[in-house]
User: Which sequence fits this backbone?
């Protein structure tokens, strides 16, 4: 059948005129670094999310790194996050000399479990392991974490909340938009994310004026009043003008795409309910559906059956971070995060994008139900 996992070609054919014109405009004015499109995109992103400041940057990973740097996270600080995420979430913590402290996930949302977070902070304090400085909740697959509880726990402990919204741009949590749910939000414009550019890109979001000022400085080598006065150690982490220009027409189309993603997800869930475990939707929360992920004991059989019909699937994530070689020195072992480990054995993601047709969703669901019933 040949259904793409994420369909960038259909989106491009729809927006080609606008995207081509936007690229041409950049070639004509030639301001490739920090050009007017970057400023315009930042303004439109701020309006869309409802935050005071947006700082475009080179990737989702750098957005997280810049957020941690702007919040003064440094050597020996404890940063609490989930082991059930893309490696970038924890990698940036380690790069700064801080220590990732993993906390298991909720078995229904796959996001950090606030009760376990509270317990982990108390344990770290009693063991005098270091200063609990930040929490990085990950809005996995596009579903916002439980910010009401997480923000309260963070405030009680004098910690900042850095939202890893790499997968959740466009999602909503009780009337507020993802990227604006913690103290600082970080998102990614990697091509396959809900809002993607044609290369690497990202953005940082905050209402905090001081943090925003630091982010702008960190983005350009820790610049001060001008770029040859350096007031702190920074990065070269700018968003290309070309990528900002490509994102502008895509952002204009984005609200419609998010709506269609809801319909696709709904159709999947009603067709698959009873055959596999379908995604759980908490009250008052809307996912951006970066991934549509289901659970089944028959994962291998289902994926094989889909593969035979050229329908791609993916496993996010086959191995939680605490079991990765890169994190062996943290001293975790198998069994430490049973929910993450269990979910990683049963989860898989189906094709998900706003250009998926109802007939395609039906066809995928039929293959799955047949595979589950042993056909
Ligand atoms: C994609 C992703 C990132 C990193 O974004 P890049 O733009 O690829 O650097 C970080 N965290 C999560 C959860 C992601 O899915």
Assistant:
């Amino acid at each position: 059948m040949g259904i793409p996992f994420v369909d960038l070609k259909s989106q491009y054919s729809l927006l080609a005129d606008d995207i081509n014109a936007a690229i041409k405009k950049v070639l004509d004015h030639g301001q490739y670094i920090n050009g007017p499109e970057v400023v315009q995109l930042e303004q439109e992103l701020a309006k869309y999310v409802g935050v005071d400041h947006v700082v475009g940057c080179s990737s989702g990973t750098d957005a997280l790194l810049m957020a941690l740097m702007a919040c003064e996270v440094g050597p020996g600080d404890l940063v609490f996050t989930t082991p059930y995420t893309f490696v970038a979430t924890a990698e940036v913590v380690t790069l700064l000399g801080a220590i990732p402290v993993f906390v298991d996930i909720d078995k229904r949302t796959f996001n950090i479990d606030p009760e376990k977070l509270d317990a982990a902070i108390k344990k770290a304090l009693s063991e005098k392991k270091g200063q609990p400085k930040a929490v990085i909740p990950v809005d996995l697959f596009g579903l916002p974490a439980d910010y009401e509880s997480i923000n309260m726990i963070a405030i009680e402990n004098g910690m900042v909340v850095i939202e890893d919204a790499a997968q959740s741009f466009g999602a909503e949590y009780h009337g507020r938009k993802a990227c604006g749910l913690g103290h600082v939000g970080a998102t990614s414009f990697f091509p396959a994310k809900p809002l993607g550019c044609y290369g690497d890109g990202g953005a940082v979001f905050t209402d905090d004026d001081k943090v925003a000022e630091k982010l702008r400085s960190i983005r350009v080598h820790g610049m001060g009043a001008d770029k040859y006065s350096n007031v702190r150690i920074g990065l070269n982490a700018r968003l290309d003008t070309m990528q900002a220009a490509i994102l502008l027409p895509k952002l204009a189309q984005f609200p419609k795409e998010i709506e269609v993603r809801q319909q696709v997800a709904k159709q999947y869930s009603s067709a698959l309910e009873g055959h596999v475990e379908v995604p759980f939707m908490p009250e008052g929360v809307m996912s951006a559906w970066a991934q549509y992920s289901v659970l089944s004991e028959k994962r291998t059989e289902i994926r094989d059956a889909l593969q035979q019909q050229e329908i791609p699937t993916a496993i996010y994530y086959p191995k939680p971070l605490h079991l990765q070689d890169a994190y062996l020195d943290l001293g975790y072992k198998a069994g430490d995060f049973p929910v993450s480990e269990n979910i990683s054995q049963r989860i898989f993601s189906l094709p998900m994008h706003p250009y998926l047709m109802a007939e395609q969703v039906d066809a995928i669901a039929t293959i799955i139900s047949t595979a589950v019933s042993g056909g």
Observations:
- The chain has eleven helices and twelve strands.
- The longest strand covers residues 53-57.
